[in-house]
Design a protein that fits this description.
Layout lengths: L1 H31 L5 H22 L7 E4 L8 E6 L2 E7 H27 L12 H10 L10 H7 L4
Parallel strand pairs: 1-3
Antiparallel strand pairs: 2-3
Helix pairs in contact: 2-3, 3-4
Length: 163
């Protein structure tokens, strides 16, 4: 009798767990294969506007850079600023947005705009991989919460904790 009850309990746990896994797969796959949600677009636009206002206030001019959301990145790269033939573009990784949108908005967009501004101001050298002290100050003045060289995975994990 007890054995039968345990079998039912374990079978129920397996069924519920499978349903959670399938739901997670569905949510992840539908995000990956759909257009970016309007709420994400709105948050990106709002942050970009804040950055442009900070650029005007702290550097005396404004220029807008195309923000391209792509799922073509390999690995966990959050963003990338490219400078080719005098044209600057910022790419944001859609694959990490769903799980780290707060970090993307609070840190990555300003981080990449700081690179764009450095390019615009003629700092095209590779010293410090573009993450010099001047770049850090630029990032902070643009409104970046976390102007580090690379993504702090520990910070992202801890920000998701309920405490």
């Amino acid at each position: 009798m007890l054995t039968k009850k345990l079998e039912h309990i374990f079978l129920s746990i397996i069924i519920v767990s499978t349903m959670f896994l399938l739901y997670g797969y569905y949510v992840s796959n539908s995000f990956k294969n759909s257009e970016l949600p309007q709420s994400y677009k709105d948050r990106i636009t709002k942050k970009e506007q804040e950055i442009l206002e900070n650029m005007q206030r702290n550097f005396g001019y404004v220029f807008r850079v195309p923000l391209i959301v792509t799922d073509k990145f390999k690995g966990r790269l959050y963003g990338l600023t490219s400078y080719q033939n005098g044209e600057i573009k910022i790419y944001l990784n859609k694959k990490v947005m769903q799980e780290s949108m707060d970090y993307m908005v609070d840190s990555v967009i300003a981080h990449e705009y700081a690179h764009a501004l450095m390019f615009k101001r003629g700092y095209l050298h590779n010293k410090d991989d573009g993450h010099s002290r001047e770049w850090q100050e630029t990032c902070k003045k643009l409104g970046g919460d976390d102007c580090q060289r690379y993504v702090d995975q520990q910070e992202i994990i801890m920000s998701k904790m309920p405490f």
